[in-house]
């Protein structure tokens, strides 16, 4: 355990100090940022029935694209065992002379506390976009879509032992989106010719493992390093110009991310959290548009 703690601390400082690789971001897809899958930021004595969060993030994406997002989240503790979370997200992208913005998804999750160490989460991601945003009557690639456009099932288990927090979770699409982007539809000199075609995109599910360890620097300030491997279960698919379904080779595989959470408690009801993340290992192909070399998220939370 001591070696694991030291490794997590090293991850935190690495995430704080560097930002040069590209990998799967998670804030956009969302399941690793829902409340029950994030490192626990509440001491048990301070947990109250209601909490409201508002946050914003920015990230450096692939193809010289910048991504910006906001969210509003409400957490309700129904009793000692059951809790509910609901979260609304937005996303904007800017790059290559193209700017887009839209509502992304609604996350609805139920949480069940088995005991003091084990929690279960079952929920869904409900898309607010069909992921077929267009420009000049031509579909844009996934990199410019506000949502993956899929209705997803989310399930996870969190476990704590000796203050080390473990989360294992699955996000599985139950439907697919309506994206019709075909790179060959664009002129030869267009930047979008280099993007992966995603016409009739079929996205696979993801499994994540998060390991985190909170370090109390002062009574009000806490640093929580976290390691976050995400495994994309199979290759994604698209339909080519000849109406043939093709696998996107290299889209299956592992992305390994590091996160550093910094929590500051303003008072017993109000707090601020800064979350910084970056990848160490990446998948060869990332057609879903979730590529991020670095992401920073700032969140304000009020309990009542």
TrEMBL record:
<keyword id="KW-0732">Signal</keyword>
<protein>
    <recommendedName>
        <fullName>MetA-pathway of phenol degradation</fullName>
    </recommendedName>
</protein>
<feature type="signal peptide">
    <location>
        <begin position="1"/>
        <end position="23"/>
    </location>
</feature>
């Amino acid at each position: 355990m001591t070696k694991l703690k030291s490794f997590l601390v090293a991850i935190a400082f690495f995430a704080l100090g560097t930002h040069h690789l590209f990998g799967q971001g998670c804030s956009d897809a969302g399941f690793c940022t829902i409340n029950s899958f994030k490192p626990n930021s509440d001491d048990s004595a301070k947990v109250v029935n209601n909490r409201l969060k508002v946050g914003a993030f920015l990230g450096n994406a692939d193809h010289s694209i910048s991504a910006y997002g906001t969210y509003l989240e409400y957490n309700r503790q129904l009793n000692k065992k059951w809790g509910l979370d609901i979260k609304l997200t937005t996303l904007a992208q800017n790059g290559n002379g193209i700017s887009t913005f839209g509502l992304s998804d609604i996350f609805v999750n139920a949480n069940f506390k088995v005991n003091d160490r084990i929690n279960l989460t079952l929920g869904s991601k409900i898309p607010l976009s069909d992921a077929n945003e267009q420009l000049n009557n031509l579909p844009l690639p996934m990199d410019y879509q506000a949502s993956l456009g899929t209705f997803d099932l989310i399930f996870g288990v969190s476990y704590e032992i000796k203050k080390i927090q473990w989360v294992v979770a699955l996000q599985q699409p139950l439907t697919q989106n309506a994206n019709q982007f075909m790179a060959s539809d664009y002129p030869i000199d267009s930047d979008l010719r280099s993007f992966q075609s995603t016409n009739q995109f079929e996205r696979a599910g993801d499994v994540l493992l998060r390991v985190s360890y909170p370090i109390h620097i002062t009574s009000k300030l806490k640093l929580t390093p976290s390691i976050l491997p995400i495994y994309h279960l199979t290759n994604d698919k698209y339909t080519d110009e000849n109406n043939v379904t093709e696998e996107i080779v290299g889209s299956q595989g592992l992305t390994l991310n590091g996160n550093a959470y910094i929590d500051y408690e303003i008072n017993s009801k109000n707090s601020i959290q800064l979350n910084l993340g970056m990848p160490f290992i990446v998948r060869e192909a990332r057609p879903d548009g979730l590529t991020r070399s670095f992401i920073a998220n700032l969140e304000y939370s009020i309990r009542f």
